[in-house]
Amino acid sequence: MIEGFVLGIIQGLTEWLPISSKSLLILVKTRVFGEEATLTTIIREGLFLHAGTFLAALVYLRKDVLLIIQSAYNFKHTDSRGRALLVFLFFSTFVSGILGLGIYWGIGKIETKLVSAQLLTGIIGTLLIVTGLIQRNKNYFGKKTASGTSVADAVITGFAQGLAVIPGFSRSGFTLAALIFRGVGKEEALRISFLMSLPAVLGGNIILNTNVAAFTADSLIGLATAFVTGIASIHVLLKVAHRVNFSYFIIGFGLLTVLAAFI
């Protein structure tokens, strides 16, 4: 139960920041709680915890979600923002789903049992450094809104989200960087990034966890804790996320993680 509680808090707090919540979950599972499992199993269990922050984001972004649902039912007679978001989410989810599942299944083909967590820790640390370097080079001068996004924007951002299946790569960090690179304003990019997470998390859990999810006390406590922590922190952390450059923190944490691989 303690493990589920701790992992739920980590997921609830870090999901809104441009750092890799998945990486932190993997590191805590393997290095703190000593769990030995295949990498795909740990990724799948982490995806189940994401359902908690999925519900938190659903509540926080309910107005946008309702607008998108209305657009799906009455596409021709809804406003331009609703239509643009629906089209954007359709193409970005399609691209990220194909790429993400391909990477996940690719990992399953080459992975071995995590007899030692040191190698995994070193790999995650290295990828965190790469993520930090990408974050450091973001351009914050875009003014484009959701209504001005194109299919090309959706495809590029969907590709960025798909890459985040790899431990060490931040979903929110990569999608935010891609949106800003495409000229979307910071605040709008944050909202679009978290709207993108909704179909990705829902679809990922349906595909990967429907037949194998083990509703243990630990997993359910983790899910509930992630939701409560996420709903309590999302507003504050989103404000912090778009005002603070986390690149130095991510690079520093990545370096510490690489060093930890040798301890």
Q: In terms of per-residue confidence, which ranges show pLDDT below 50 for 5 or more consecutive residues?
A: none
Largest sheet: none
Please estimate the helix content: over 70%
Computed structural class: mainly alpha
Order of helices and strands: HHHHHHHHHHH
* Shape descriptor: globular
Please give the count of helices. Answer: 11
CA distance, first residue to last residue: 27 Å
Measured by DSSP, the beta-strand proportion falls in under 5%
The average pLDDT value, as a whole number, equals 82
DSSP, total strands:
0
Radius of gyration: 18 Å
Helix/strand layout:
Blueprint: H1 2-14, H2 21-32, H3 39-60, H4 62-73, H5 80-110, H6 117-136, H7 151-163, H8 171-181, H9 186-209, H10 217-243, H11 247-260
Helix pairs in contact: 1-2, 1-3, 1-10, 2-3, 2-6, 3-9, 3-10, 4-5, 5-7, 5-9, 6-11, 7-8, 8-9
Could you walk me through the main structural features you see in this protein, from its secondary elements to its overall organization?
With 263 residues, the protein is an all-alpha fold. It is 76% helix and 0% strand. It is built from eleven helices and no strands. Helix 1 packs parallel to helix 10, helix 5 runs parallel beside helix 7 and helix 7 packs antiparallel against helix 8.
